[in-house]
Amino acid sequence: MIDVKALLEDIKAAPYEEIVVTAPHTGTVRFAGVEPGTRVAGVSGTYDEKPGTLLAKLTRERNDKPLFADAKGVVGEVRRELEGTFVEAGTPLLVIRHFLSKDEVIASILKKVLHLFSAPERAKYYFIPSVDKKIKASGPRSVTVKPGMELFIVSRMKREKPLVYEGPEGIIYAVYFQYDQNVDQGAPLVGVCPESQTDLIQDVVNRVRTDWEEGE
Predict the structure, then answer these.
(1) What's the superkingdom here (predicted)?
(2) Per-residue CA distances from 201 to 12, 47, 98, 108 (Å)
């Protein structure tokens, strides 16, 4: 059995992730006044229409291409030696230390303790009608899955086929896909846990929601 409480303690010891910001394309780098310790904002707005803090500009063919922060946090390392130089796509430029929100902590814990059943190919996925009806009526945790159970309909290029669940028996604790949206190959569709562990996991989730202090 996975010790979810120990996982929570590990996250508390390092309550952030370090995001390496790389050059999205080739160009000459000019940093936008960011230094180690600078606080930056991520994208915002109802539709993520407001860009984050300007980090740098890449000049290519006399055109300036701005590079914005995708997530809020504190700037760590900045590769100042690249200022004014031509860089290739994928070159690391700086690091942002992003402090985890409550939802991100919960998502991180769940992806470690649940069995993730992933998409075998890029396509749209739907629960079979009987499962879909049950989930809409009572939520995903009302559904128990077993190996070999037909669980999804895979829709790709106007063709549909069934997909059988493979993994341990348990209940669907989390759903990671949305209807009518393509899911990339390898991305999780559902997270499954043994019924005996649901109360323990929910207890940790509740603790995060009430006690977690989000960083700046």
Answers:
(1) Bacteria
(2) 17, 32, 25, 12
